[in-house]
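Progress report, Aim 2. The chain analyzed during this reporting quarter is listed below.
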Amino acid sequence: MMPLTLDDLIPLEEYAGRRREYFDSHRRYVDRYRRVRIGPRLTLVFENRQTLWFRIQEIVRIARIVDPVEVRQELDLYNRLLPGANLLQAALLIAISDESKLFEELAPFQNMQGDHLRLCVGRQEYAADLITSRPEDRAIGTAHWVQFPIAAQGRAALTDFNKRAAFVFDNGNYHHACSLGEDVRQSLLDDLSLSDRDMLRAAA
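Predicted C-alpha cells for the chain:
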C-alpha cells in the first residue's frame, strides 16, 4: 500500500476547522469497514491509508506541527503501520471495564500468543503474528499489534462470499468468534489487492 505523503494531508488550520466533520466520517468508516468485535472484550481495527490519514492529521493537530520536515518525520514513522504485500494489519484492543482492576482484567490475556487469534475462511485457517509479544506487552498492554499473512490461496477463498469468513480467538480463557460482514470482508480484500498493485507500481 502506497505510503502517505505531505500532498495527501490538508493544512492544519483547515483540518482543525472541520475536525468534527472528519471525526464523524472517520468513525462511521471504521465502524462499517474496519472494525471487528470478537466477543465482549476484544476488538480488531484494521489499518489502511484512510485510517492512517486521520491518525496523522490528529497528531499534527494535537501537537500543532507546522514544520514540513517534522510532519514528514511523523509520516515516515506511521507509514510503517500500512499493510504490506500479502498482509493484513490491525490493532487488537482489550476492553477494560474497571481501570482500578487493570491487572485483574488483563490476566486472562497475559499469555496471549499469535495462534490464539485466527482468520478462518472455509476450512482454511491463518494464525496472527503478534508483533507486541514481549512479556511486558502481554502483562500491561490493552492494545497490541497483529499481522495476518494471507497466501494467494487464502485471498482467493476470501473472494468466495459463499464461504464463511470469521475471526476466532481462543486462548483457553476467552473463546469467541465473529463472522465477517460483506463490507468489512470487501475492505480487507481491497487491502490485499492494493498491496499487489503497489508492488507492481514500485517495481515499474
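Residues 6-203 form one domain. Helices lie at 12-17, 19-34, 49-63, 68-78, 102-106, 135-140, 152-158, 182-203. These observations will guide the mutagenesis work planned for the next reporting period.
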